[in-house]
Each structure stands twice: as C-alpha cells, then as structure tokens.
Amino acid sequence: MFNNDPSPQLLKERLHYAGRKFSFEVSYLRLPNGVEGEWECIRHPGGSLAVPVTPEGKLILVDQYRIPLKQRLLEFPAGTVEAYEEPAETIKRELEEETGYHGNKWQDLGKFPLAPGYSDEYIYVFLATELEKLENPPEQDEDEDITIVLYTPEELEQLIHSGENKLDAKTITSYYLARPFL
C-alpha cells in the first residue's frame, strides 16, 4: 500500500547543467512534514532496451567500456530516446547500430525507473525476436566500442548469480521481465 500523503511543495528550482544527454537540477522543496531542503536530480529523456533473441535461442549482449565505472560491462543493446523518437523507434535503430541485427518481431515488456533516488530516467524494455543479420549494418556511433557476445538464458543466469559484477541493473531487470517469454 502506498502512502497517500500530499506531494512536497516546490519552492524553487535551479538548472546547474544542461548537456547533450541529460541535465542536472537542484530543487528546494518543503515536505508535507514541514522539513525543507535541497534535492538534486538528473533529468534524462529515458532509454530503450532490447532483449534480443536469435533464432537459436541465444541472447545478444554488447560488451562495452563504461567510463564512470572504469570497466567493461555486458549489457543488452540500449540507447537514449531522442526527442523526435518514440521508445520503440529508438530501440529498433539502436539494435541495428549496436549489433547489426534487425528484429522482425517486437514485444513491449514495460518500463521501469532506473535510479529514482537521483534521476527521472525510465527504461523502456522490448523483446526482439525473429532476428536477421543485416548485410550492410549501420555504423556504430563513433563514441562506442562495442563487441557482440551471445549467451544462452542459462549462461546469463549463471553470470547474474555469480557475483562478478559484469552486468548492469537494467540488463538484469530486463532479463527477468523477458524470462517468461524465452
């Protein structure tokens, strides 16, 4: 059961940074209990993610270096929703750019907030099946260094439970949203 208390009152808001992919705001709020304070928030347009499954039942992941963590991670293909796109359009484009595969069948698996403690970003999740390898795939973005990796669902689950920290939260969450359909 959710708490039905009224929302905090916004007293003032400041934009600290506006970048290419996100902005950073600081809001001064009064909570329903009277406490006032500053809350920081990253504003993000959202991301779309595909759980791509090959005709052989393998999951396609991308191996890429993540600068904030200073390590490579395995992730499902994903990308930022552009202002002119719907989430479904974004992920169809990103799947082709990042993997060289085209999905012929798509299923919307829902959305979830990525890190609501400091960001308003939602991840929109889609299952992509009936994949075809493209003869002339689009170029990867110049700021991406991606390698494609294939896993069976069982292998991915073993990796999730291994404690090796090689996967990000959106990949783990999306796997479990897709699992009933695999």
Automatic annotation (TrEMBL):
CDD domains tied to this protein: NUDIX_ADPRase_Nudt5_UGPPase_Nudt14
Pfam families xref list: NUDIX
Span of the signal peptide: none
GO biological process: nucleoside phosphate metabolic process; ribose phosphate metabolic process
Highest taxon listed in the record's lineage: Bacteria
Cofactor(s) this protein requires: Mg(2+)
Record-linked InterPro entries: NUDIX_hydrolase-like_dom_sf (IPR015797), NUDIX_hydrolase_CS (IPR020084), NUDIX_hydrolase_dom (IPR000086)
Keywords: Hydrolase
Entry keyword annotation includes Hydrolase: yes
Keyword Transferase assigned: no
GO molecular function, one term: hydrolase activity
Nudix hydrolase domain ranges (all copies): 42-173
Protein known as: NTP pyrophosphohydrolase
Organism from which the protein derives: Dactylococcopsis salina (strain PCC 8305)
Organism phylogeny: Bacteria, Bacillati, Cyanobacteriota, Cyanophyceae, Nodosilineales
